[in-house]
Design goal:
- The complex is a heterodimer of chains A (403) and B (153).
- The two termini of chain A are 34 Å apart.
- Chain A has a single domain, classed as Cytochrome-c3 Hydrogenase, chain B (Orthogonal Bundle), CATH 1.10.645.
- With 403 residues, chain A is mainly alpha-helical.
- Chain A has 18 helices and eight strands.
- Chain B has a single domain (2-152), classed as NADH:ubiquinone oxidoreductase Nqo5 subunit (Beta Polymerase, domain 2, 2-Layer Sandwich), CATH 3.30.460.
- In chain B, 20% of the residues lie in helices and 30% in strands.
- In chain B, the strands form two sheets. A five-stranded mixed beta sheet of chain B has the order 1-2-5-4-3. A two-stranded parallel ribbon of chain B has the order 6-7.
- The termini of chain B are far apart.
- At the A-B interface, helix 2, strand 6, strand 7, strand 8 and helix 15 of A face strand 3 and helix 3 of B.
């Protein structure tokens, strides 16, 4: 499978391979959304590959400019819809940096815990769909079994399964629900054994190995130059994780490893992401055991809505509530670029404020955008059947690409 | 640090610099952007281009601010470059020769802001459909469209 030109060499000389252009998508099962890949083929070898994106462009960046800062949080869920909470977090961190807000430790830890559950959720969807693309049907069922449990936890916290909007500028949207420790604890204690199950199905599976080893390889420098980030680089040998290199939301207080591989193929990316599942579980466990006590929201009455009880008894609280709800809060002029480690790589929000209550400009750097840009490097000169494996291994989400 | 190095290496390129919330931005003369980027990549370890975007300061002139988000992996360091280009000559040299990954980001800025990147290998719209009229992220582009009149059906 991985041998380039393997098919070409078998072709008899009189029927030399003809060039053809193959359109994959916009509607294709392996594109998980609407992505069009244009492949130029010579026989079964890809000579040139290109992506046509923009089918899911919804103008979210423009919409930000018409909304108050706090309202923008709900838009961030819809960008990378497999890791909504990490999008929430990145946007909130950017605006909080502009406001120079101090977030209490309990909220920071809760953000880390839910962020890591989101990472597990996203990696599970990736593992399930990627293995299904390559023909391993049953893995999908196991992955979605655990994902369901995570979505139930999200629902418990925020009332929503997917579009949670649970992190808000200044802290969390709601107080954590009663019994969350038991729910998260039950899930996270059982989870490592579930990862063993996935690995039993795939890691030593000869079909899986033939389908993924040596496939989709590209030089590390090429990947970096094309804007690829995250697990793709870690699978090619670069030890770079933003949670370690630029810690945010008290990630520096957690003990976890950054898995790396040197092969840089689809199999290595699989290994890195499976190991990240285990590491995320470790972080969730630490957050659960060491969750600090204290408030869930910053002490910033001009940003955070007042307590309901206070609002009924205190004049200032009522005034603040009225002001925040009707006209939002003003953010000092300036710009900030905040990056976080999303399940797919470096996610960045560049927020520009002109001193009013609405963002002047929000630029969203989605990791899938860069990862997809590097795809031609991974598939050119390879067999067309391997394009599916390489495409799946980039773990792209089209909401994140097109925004 | 990088600011002084750039100013020493390429005289006249740095028009100003600012630090906001611990993040450094350099204002660069648009004509010298490729030179500055090449220097920063080759000699200051900024091997990654995290993104390219623009801000429309309509109606101020020069109107478009092109923002380059640079990142050095070792040692970990981030830097922003900003170039202001006027609306009557909204064009700037492409940095795809320095970082091939700038390709899609520059296409996006071209598509949504209408800033032309000279010497770009493949400058087409990327988000909006081909043949679309206007550039949606410009500030004078309306957020809402004309109301559809159902009584005229």
């Amino acid at each position: 499978m991985s041998e380039p030109n393997a098919n070409v060499s078998e072709t008899p000389a009189d029927t030399a391979p003809r060039r053809m252009t193959l359109n994959m998508g916009p509607q294709h099962p392996s594109t998980h959304g609407v992505l069009r890949m244009m492949l130029e083929l010579e026989g079964e070898t890809i000579t040139k590959a290109g992506c046509d994106i923009g089918y899911l462009h919804t103008g979210i960046e423009k919409e930000f400019e018409a909304k108050l800062y706090q309202q923008g949080v709900t838009l961030t869920d819809r960008i990378d819809y497999l890791c909504p909470l990490i999008n929430n977090l990145c946007y909130c961190l950017a605006v909080e940096k502009l406001l120079d807000l101090e977030i209490p430790p309990a909220a920071q830890w809760m953000r880390v815990m839910l962020g890591e559950l989101t990472r597990i959720n996203s990696h599970l969807v990736w593992l399930g769909t990627h293995s299904m693309d390559l023909g391993a049907m049953s893995v999908f069922l196991y992955c979605f079994r655990e994902r369901e449990e995570i979505l139930k936890i999200f629902e418990m916290f925020s009332g929503q399964r997917m579009m949670t909007s649970y992190f808000r500028i200044g802290g969390l949207a709601l107080e954590p629900p009663r019994g969350w420790q038991q729910a998260v604890g039950k899930f996270i204690d059982a989870f490592p054994s579930h990862v063993d199950e996935y690995e039993e199905l795939l890691t030593k599976n000869p079909i899986w190995m033939r389908r993924t080893k040596g496939v989709g390889r590209a030089a590390l420098d090429d990947l970096i130059a094309h804007g690829v980030t995250g697990p793709m680089l870690r699978a090619a040998g670069l030890n770079w994780d933003i949670r370690k290199s630029e810690p945010y939301s008290s990630y520096e207080k957690f003990d976890f490893d950054v898995p790396t591989r040197t092969e840089g193929d689809v199999y290595a990316r699989y290994q890195v992401r499976v190991e990240e599942l285990r590491q995320s579980a470790r972080i969730v466990k630490q957050a659960l055991d060491g969750m600090p006590a204290g408030p869930w929201e910053a002490d910033a009455p001009h940003v955070v809505l007042p307590d309901r009880e206070k609002m009924k008894t205190q004049m200032e609280a009522l005034i603040y509530h009225f002001k925040i709800v009707t006209e939002g809060f003003r953010v000092p002029a300036g710009d900030v670029y905040q990056v976080v480690e999303s399940p797919r790589g470096e996610m960045g929000y560049y927020v520009v404020s002109d001193g009013t209550a609405r963002p002047y400009r929000v630029f969203i750097h989605g990791p899938s955008f860069g990862n997809l840009q590097g795809l031609p490097k991974m598939v050119e000169g390879r067999l067309v059947a391997d394009a599916i494996a390489a495409l799946g291994s980039t773990d792209f989400v089209l909401g994140d690409v097109d925004r | 640090m990088s600011e002084n190095a750039v100013a020493a290496e390429i005289p006249g390129a740095v028009l100003g610099s600012s630090v906001h919330r611990g993040q450094t931005s350099l204002e660069i003369a648009p004509a010298q952007i490729v030179e500055v980027c090449r220097f920063l990549k080759d000699q200051q370890q900024f091997t990654r281009l995290s993104g390219v975007t623009a801000v429309d300061w309509y109606p101020t002139e020069p109107r478009f601010e092109i923002v380059y988000l640079l990142h050095a992996l070792e040692p970990n360091q981030r830097l922003r470059l900003k170039c202001r280009v006027p609306s009557d000559r909204a064009e700037i040299d492409s940095v795809t020769g320095v970082w091939p990954g700038a390709n899609w980001y520059e296409r996006e800025v071209f598509d949504l802001f209408g800033v032309v990147f000279l010497n770009h290998p493949d400058l087409r719209r990327i988000m909006m459909p081909e043949g679309w009229d206007g550039h949606p992220l410009r500030k004078d582009y309306p957020v809402t469209g004309p109301k559809y009149d159902y009584t005229q059906e």
